[in-house]
Design goal:
single chain; 427 residues; mainly alpha; 78% helix
Length: 427
């Protein structure tokens, strides 16, 4: 039985073929991947290609680097909120049997924030800051609960491929979102409405078909009380899981570099390399397709070789790309460099999700994916601030910031050596 979703750029036919070949619940795996397809329009259009440059260049304005700095602070503020709340809410969702409800609530919060972007105009820096924080907290928090379904819907020997499938289909969603955004940029309010509708419509299968919340001995308020009372012991239990602990520390550093590049790519393309808004959309469209190819190409190797092997290779690629970006002057060369780096974008996220999934004990998925979000989002409060501060200190020159972020990849690669490779042999 196939799932009759609309094909986009060949990625969704690949989804159907994949599901026919695997012995998993096809509706659940398909619906899970479709949520990645749905939500990927948000980072592509909002945090990367359109809203980031719109906020820093138009809403804030000026050429003194203040727009880049405020954008970095907005990203960091939202990441900090997610980092501080995700572990507790993940534990509450597990104990209170409310994982799907939390995912639905935060998806709605993101849609509300994006829709309210239509009220922004030049000079409304504070309002834009607050609305982005609301939208981004909703998006990032929904991802915590979405990720936690992976161990439920896929066996260990298939989690790398299912994770890669999600990111691959997600990048198809990003590409489609950028194609839809391109003709709307002259009436920018229509871009925000399109993003909200896209996310809403394509997320429906996930809420219909993903596993239902299981009844629990605790209500959500009781689970919240339990979580607040026992949070120190929860942290201690996680810290005692040595392999997971060491992975999360390494992840803290390298994902900081990845997320900072994602959120700063729009301002860099337009301010350092003089891309027009339309050229930026085309750049990020091609990067999404490159990332889609990387996510699919390295999905099976993640299972066969283990996620650590894949991550080591991809981090070396990003280190070389970060150093090269410091020296590149020509727009076309930067375009090519971005496409090469994009190949590793989907795989670094997919392999990381698979890695942590293999290290999580059964029954604690939301809780420990909450700590996964804690490390990822608390680190991403650092990178954008460092990037924006380095840009201001350099008088608006963004190039020194490339090297600052590259250091994060180097540290993450070094720390990853302490973590064993949970190599899973798969046919």
């Amino acid at each position: 039985m196939t799932i009759p979703y609309v094909a986009v750029g060949g990625a969704l036919p690949c989804l159907t073929i994949f599901l026919l070949r695997c012995a998993m619940n096809k509706k659940q795996v398909g619906a899970w991947a479709m949520f990645d397809f749905a939500n990927s329009v948000y980072p592509a259009v909002i945090t990367t290609a359109v809203f980031s440059a719109y906020y820093s260049g138009f809403v804030v304005g000026g050429d003194d680097g203040r727009g880049t700095q405020l954008w970095g602070w907005a990203v960091s503020a939202s990441a900090l909120i997610v980092a501080l709340t995700a572990p507790l809410l993940g534990a509450v969702a597990d104990r209170g049997g409310a994982r799907k409800k939390f995912m639905l609530f935060y998806t709605g919060l993101c849609l509300f924030g994006v829709t309210m972007f239509t009220t922004l105009d030049a000079g409304m820096a504070l309002q834009g800051f607050v609305l982005f924080v609301i939208a981004n907290v909703g998006f990032e928090s929904a991802i915590v609960f979405y990720n936690s379904f992976l161990p439920d819907i896929a066996p260990r020997e298939m989690q790398g491929r299912v994770s890669g499938l999600g990111f691959g289909v997600g990048y198809a969603g990003s590409a489609l979102g950028l194609l839809l955004a391109a003709p709307l940029v002259d009436t920018i309010e229509l871009v925000w409405i399109m993003v909200a509708l896209f996310f809403l419509v394509f997320s429906i299968p996930a809420f219909l078909y993903l596993p239902k919340d299981e009844p629990s001995e605790m209500s959500v308020p009781q689970a919240m009380g339990w979580g607040l009372t026992n949070f120190r012991s929860i942290v201690a239990e996680v810290w005692a899981l040595k392999d997971l602990r060491n992975f999360l520390i390494a992840f803290f550093f390298y994902i900081d570099g990845v997320l900072t590049i994602i959120v700063m790519a729009g301002p860099v393309a337009e301010e350092t390399f003089a891309f027009t808004p339309s050229e930026s959309i085309m750049l990020f469209l091609i990067v999404q397709l490159s990332a889609l190819a990387g996510a699919f190409a390295l999905a099976k190797p993640t299972d066969v070789w283990g996620p650590k092997t894949v991550l080591n290779g991809v981090l070396l690629l990003w280190i070389m790309a970060g150093v090269s970006a410091f020296f590149v002057q020509d727009k076309s060369v930067f375009f090519g460099l971005a496409v090469v780096a994009g190949f590793g974008l989907g795989s670094v996220q997919s392999a990381s999700r698979s890695y942590v999934s293999l290290l999580i004990p059964d029954g604690r998925e939301s809780e420990l994916f909450g700590f996964y979000a804690l490390c990822g989002k608390s680190s991403s409060t650092v990178g954008p601030i460092l990037f924006g501060t380095a840009t201001v200190m350099a008088g608006g020159n963004q190039r020194p910031s490339f090297l600052v972020i590259t250091v994060m990849f180097v540290i993450g690669l070094f720390l990853l050596r302490k973590v064993p490779n949970p190599r899973v042999l798969a046919s």
